[in-house]
Design goal:
Radius of gyration: 19 Å
Number of helices: 8
Family: Belongs to the CbiQ family.
Organism: Bartonella alsatica IBS 382
Strand content: under 5%
Number of strands: 2
Subcellular location: Membrane
Order of helices and strands: HHHHHHHHEE
Shape: globular
Main location: membrane
Largest sheet: 2 strands, antiparallel
Protein name: Cobalt transport protein
Structural class: mainly alpha
Strand order of the largest sheet: 1-2
Length: 218
């Protein structure tokens, strides 16, 4: 299945998934508690330094910025209209830092390792009715489908531009929703074909379900 993971021999890659996930949780909490622009800028520089240490290509950072640029612009304009530009800038810094840090964890951690760690954390909660296998499966699918949906969005956008159509949020949303629902249906059929049982001891690996450009291959 498609993964954001970029294999490198760095300190960040060698950290245990649990450590990175815990650090991400702590940093996200701090980000939402801090409202100082200088501190947020320092945190963003810290994340950039971690990217450097992890040897993540700058092109990956540019792709992330491009993907969320429209969303950030809308947030900034909204804040200018209803509050002020400083508040908008603060929110953009906070959101950008959080997305970059979360992406760093995804780029330096195998999805199977990440999900396995979360499943281990949830094992004690089985007694209160939480199915750790089901939760980890859902989380795995959600994480891995993020880049897939992004590619589908680019395909729809390019197809509309090739036809000379004006692209807007509504024109992009409907084909994307249809393709996503169709893809989800194909994944469900693939799971049924494999007789997947979330209550059984099924391990989630990168080879369970393969997502390719043309669809889902069970």
């Amino acid at each position: 299945m498609i993964s954001l993971y970029l294999p490198q021999d760095t300190f960040v890659h060698k950290l245990r998934p649990g450590v990175k996930l815990l650090f991400l949780t702590v940093c996200a909490t701090i980000l939402f508690m801090v409202s100082s622009i200088p501190i947020l800028l320092i945190f963003l520089l810290f994340v950039a330094l971690l990217y450097r240490v992890a040897k993540i290509p700058f092109s990956n950072v540019l792709k992330q910025l491009k993907a969320m640029s429209l969303f950030l612009i809308l947030i900034f304009v909204f804040q200018i209209i209803f509050k002020n530009w400083l508040t908008g800038f603060e929110i953009i810094l906070r959101f950008t830092s959080l997305v970059f840090f979360a992406s760093l964890v995804s780029l330096t951690t195998k999805v199977s390792d990440m999900v396995s760690t979360i499943e281990t954390w949830l094992q004690p909660f089985r007694h209160v009715g939480i199915n750790s296998s089901k939760f980890s499966m859902v989380l795995s699918m959600a994480i891995r489908f993020i880049p897939v949906v992004g590619k589908k969005l680019n395909e729809v956008n390019e197809a509309q531009r090739a036809r000379g159509l004006d692209t807007n949020i509504f024109a992009l949303a409907m084909p994307l929703i249809i393709r996503t629902i169709r893809m989800a249906s194909e994944v469900a059929e693939a799971l049924d074909a494999r007789s997947y049982d979330c209550n059984a001891d099924n391990s989630i690996s990168d080879d369970n379900i393969t997502v390719q450009r043309k669809g889902i291959i069970p």
